[in-house]
Design brief:
By secondary structure, this protein is mainly alpha-helical. The protein is built from 18 helices and two strands. Helix 8 packs antiparallel against helix 17, helix 11 runs parallel beside helix 15 and helix 17 runs antiparallel to helix 18.
C-alpha cells in the first residue's frame, strides 16, 4: 500500500471515530433534553447539529483535506458555529426573544429552521461540486511566489498621494485606528464620495507597502533571510494595526491575508508566523472589543465567552430568529418589493455605482427587515444583519431561497482557485481576503459581500495593473 492510500485509510478511520463519538455524545444530550420546555418552533433545531456533521463528512471533509484552501476551511468553521454551537445554545435556552419585542410566530420559526437545513445541504453540495470542478488541477506545477512586476514606482507614488490626501482632508482621518488606539467611524457616517474614496485608497495603500517591501527585499537578495523575515513580519503587523474604524472582521481579514503571504514566502517559519500574527490579532481584537464595550479590562479571554452566549451568538451567526424575521418581513411588507428591488438591491452596495443608486427611490430589503425587527420596540432598530438566506427568501421564495448562498459559495471556491494556483503575491493576497468574506455567506448578507469585494478590488486591481504596465524611471 502506498503512502497516499495509507493516509486515506487513516483519515477514514479518524472520520469514522469522530462520527461515532458525536453520535454517542449528541444522542445522550438529546435523551436528557426536555423537549416540553422548548418552544414548538425551535424543536426542529435539534436536527441541525447531526445534519451539519453528515454534510461535513459527506461533502466538505475530503475537499478540505485535499485542497486546504481558506474559503473551504472558514466556511466549515462558520457552519460549525452556526449549526452546532448556536443550535445547542438555542436548545438549552428553549427559545430566543432578546432582540425584537414581538417574536416571530412558531410556524415561521419552524420554517426558518427548515430553510436553514435546506441552505446547509445546498451550500455543501455546491462547495463539493465547485471544488472538484474548479480546484482539481492534476497537471499543476507549483511555481515560486513572485510579484506581478518588479516595479515599485507606482506603489510608492500611490502611497505618497494617499498620505497627502489624508493630511489635506481632515474628515478622511475620522476613525483612523492604530494598534490598541481604537476609533470608530463607519463609511455610512462619512457621506462624501471623495472621503470614501480616500479611505478606500488608504486601506489599499498599506497592502501596497507590503508588496513593495517584498520586491525591495528580493532585489537586495535578503528576502529569504532571517532579517528579511523580520522586516516582512513588521510590515504585516503595521498592515493589521493601521485601519479605519472598529470592525473586527476587517482586522481578522487583514491578519489572514498577511499570514497567507508569510506562509507562502517563508514556509520554514510557519509556526512562528501563525503564533506571532495570531497573538497580535487576538490582542487587537480584544482591545477593539474593549472599546466597543464587549470586554472588560483584566479579562483577556472572557470576551470570547460572548460567542457562546445565546443573545450574542444569535446576532453573530444569524440563526432561526433572524431568518424568521425576514420571513415575516416579506409577509407584512412584501408589497414594497418591486422589480427595482431585484436589480438595485445588488447595485446599491457597489463601489461608485452605489452612490448613484441610493438617490433612486426604492426600498431596500434591509429596510423592510429592520421595520419588522423594530416592531414592539421604542424607536428603530437597524443594527441587525439580514442574512443571505433571508435575502433569498424575500426575493425568490422558499424553493430558491438558498440560490444566493450557493452562488456565493461557488464564488468563494473561485477565489480559492486564485489563492491556490496563482504565483502572484498580489493575487494570492486579495484572493485569501475575499475568500474570508465569501466563507461567511451564511451569517452575513450578499450586500456586505458585494460591498467589500467591489470596494476592495476596484482600486486594488487598477493600481496593480498600472504598476505592472508602467515603468517609473529614476
Amino acid at each position: 500500500m502506498n503512502s497516499r492510500g495509507l493516509k486515506l485509510n487513516i483519515d477514514t478511520l479518524i472520520a469514522g471515530f469522530l462520527i461515532f463519538a458525536f453520535a454517542i455524545g449528541y444522542g445522550i444530550y438529546i435523551y436528557k433534553l426536555n423537549f416540553d420546555l422548548i418552544d414548538p418552533g425551535y424543536r426542529i433545531t435539534a436536527l441541525m447539529p447531526p445534519l451539519f456533521v453528515i454534510c461535513y463528512f459527506v461533502f466538505l471533509h475530503r475537499p478540505i483535506m485535499k485542497y486546504k484552501s481558506p474559503f473551504l476551511i472558514i466556511f466549515a468553521l462558520v457552519g460549525f458555529m452556526r449549526y452546532v454551537i448556536l443550535s445547542v445554545l438555542t436548545l438549552n435556552e428553549g427559545t430566543f426573544s432578546y432582540i425584537s419585542h414581538m417574536d416571530p410566530k412558531d410556524g415561521n420559526i419552524r420554517l426558518a429552521g427548515i430553510l436553514m437545513c435546506y441552505e446547509l445541504i445546498v451550500c455543501c453540495i455546491a462547495a463539493n461540486i465547485a471544488s472538484r470542478k474548479i480546484l482539481d488541477k492534476k497537471e499543476f506545477q507549483r511555481q515560486e511566489l513572485q510579484s506581478t512586476s518588479d516595479n515599485i514606482g507606482v506603489y510608492f507614488i500611490f502611497i505618497a498621494i494617499v498620505i497627502l490626501l489624508v493630511a489635506l482632508v481632515p474628515s478622511a482621518k475620522i476613525g483612523l485606528s492604530f494598534g490598541i488606539d481604537v476609533n470608530s467611524a463607519d463609511n455610512d457616517d462619512v457621506g462624501s464620495f471623495l472621503v470614501l474614496g480616500i479611505r478606500e485608497c488608504f486601506v489599499n495603500a498599506k497592502y501596497f507597502l507590503l508588496f513593495a517591501t517584498l520586491i525591495i527585499l528580493k532585489k537586495l537578495g535578503i528576502r529569504d533571510s532571517t532579517k528579511g523575515y523580520i522586516i516582512v513580519v513588521a510590515v504585516c503587523v503595521l498592515v493589521i494595526a493601521l485601519r479605519i474604524g472598529s470592525n473586527k472582521k476587517k482586522m481578522l481579514c487583514d491578519a489572514l491575508a498577511c499570514l497567507v503571504i508569510l506562509l507562502k514566502v517563508f514556509p520554514k517559519q510557519r509556526k512562528i508566523s501563525i503564533g506571532a500574527l495570531g497573538f497580535f490579532a487576538f490582542v487587537l481584537v480584544f482591545f477593539t472589543a474593549l472599546f466597543r464595550g464587549q470586554a472588560t479590562e483584566g479579562n483577556a479571554l472572557g470576551f470570547l465567552a460572548q460567542y457562546f452566549e445565546l443573545e450574542q451568538a444569535e446576532q453573530y451567526f444569524g440563526g432561526q430568529f433572524h431568518v424568521a424575521i425576514a420571513i415575516e418581513a416579506k409577509e407584512m411588507y412584501g408589497e414594497l418589493i418591486t422589480w427595482k428591488t431585484y436589480i438595485l438591491h445588488f447595485l446599491r452596495p457597489m463601489f461608485i455605482i452605489g452612490s448613484f443608486v441610493k438617490r433612486t427611490g426604492f426600498v431596500l430589503l434591509s429596510d423592510i427587515f429592520d421595520i419588522r425587527m423594530s416592531l414592539g420596540l421604542v424607536g428603530h432598530r437597524g443594527d441587525q444583519i439580514l442574512v443571505t438566506l433571508g435575502e433569498g427568501y424575500m426575493l425568490y421564495g422558499k424553493i430558491f431561497a438558498p440560490i444566493l448562498s450557493a452562488a456565493t459559495v461557488v464564488l468563494g471556491v473561485w477565489f480559492d482557485k486564485i489563492y491556490k494556483y496563482s504565483n502572484k503575491i498580489e493575487y494570492v493576497f486579495i484572493a485569501a481576503a475575499m475568500a474570508f468574506y465569501c466563507a461567511q455567506v451564511m451569517i452575513i448578507g450578499t450586500t456586505q459581500i458585494i460591498n467589500i469585494i467591489t470596494y476592495r478590488m476596484c482600486i486594488y486591481l487598477v493600481v496593480i495593473f498600472v504598476n505592472s504596465r508602467v515603468k517609473i524611471r529614476r
